[in-house]
Design goal:
It is built from seven helices and 13 strands. The protein is α/β, with parallel strands linked by helices. Helix 1 packs parallel to helix 6.
């Protein structure tokens, strides 16, 4: 994947390290020249020094070539501008932002930002899941990050497609809490069949996300 990250410090470096190790192509924008030099020495990523809320800087970073844009500056307004530009001007499908003021989370979502989160310590895990499995539409941490809710849309090719829930090997620490089938909401039991295009609402500890996704997509 091609991923553009704008701004941030410590959490950004964790993301850069994690995503680079998984061979994503990363472009990083920051307005601190010395910090940009430091990042370019430490990570195999494209680094651009400038204000990431300015269209000409985003265009220099070839924003339209990216699959995902992540805005992590210290300014909520800048992050909103970056994500709005990404989605509405440059046609980026997925845009994520961190926010300093938790009250802005709902505002960002209402304005079309895919995910806005104030708890930056869970951003790395959230981005990792969303960018590696495109069928996940949402990843939301609750209870201070100790529980995660993910939404997965089932495809015909998936391991669990057209199987009864009781016949699927699933972690004992995770649960499919609800199935959205068209306009119908289903509280599943063991005899519920998983159908293509079902949206599964799955609750689990964050550290089990990769295991669960392997079970859903490819099987245990």
């Amino acid at each position: 994947m091609n991923i553009l990250i704008v701004g941030g410090r410590d959490t950004t470096e964790y993301l850069l390290n994690s995503l680079s190790n998984k061979f994503h192509n990363i472009t990083f924008i920051h307005d601190d020249y010395d910090y940009c030099k430091n990042i370019s020495r430490k990570y195999d990523v494209t680094v651009i020094c400038g204000d990431g809320s300015k269209p000409y800087i985003l265009e220099e970073a070839k924003i339209n070539k990216n699959n995902v844009v992540i805005a992590m500056t210290s300014s909520d307004s800048d992050n909103l501008v970056i994500c709005q530009l990404a989605k509405k001007v440059y046609g980026i499908k997925k845009a994520f932002a961190t926010v300093c003021n938790p009250k802005n989370v709902e505002v960002f979502k209402k304005l079309g930002i895919d995910t806005a989160i104030s708890a930056t310590y869970v951003v790395a895990e959230m981005i990792e899941q969303v960018t590696t499995v495109n069928e996940i539409y949402n990843f939301m941490p609750i209870e201070d990050g100790s529980i995660s809710i993910i939404e997965v849309v089932v495809k015909e090719k998936y391991h669990i497609s057209n199987k009864l829930l009781k016949d699927i090997e699933f972690s004992q620490d995770a649960i499919i809490g609800c199935i959205i089938r068209g306009k119908q909401s289903i509280i599943p039991n063991g005899n519920t069949k998983i159908l293509p295009h079902d949206k599964l609402i799955i609750l689990s500890p964050p550290n089990l996300q990769n295991t669960i996704l392997n079970n859903v997509v490819r099987g245990a």
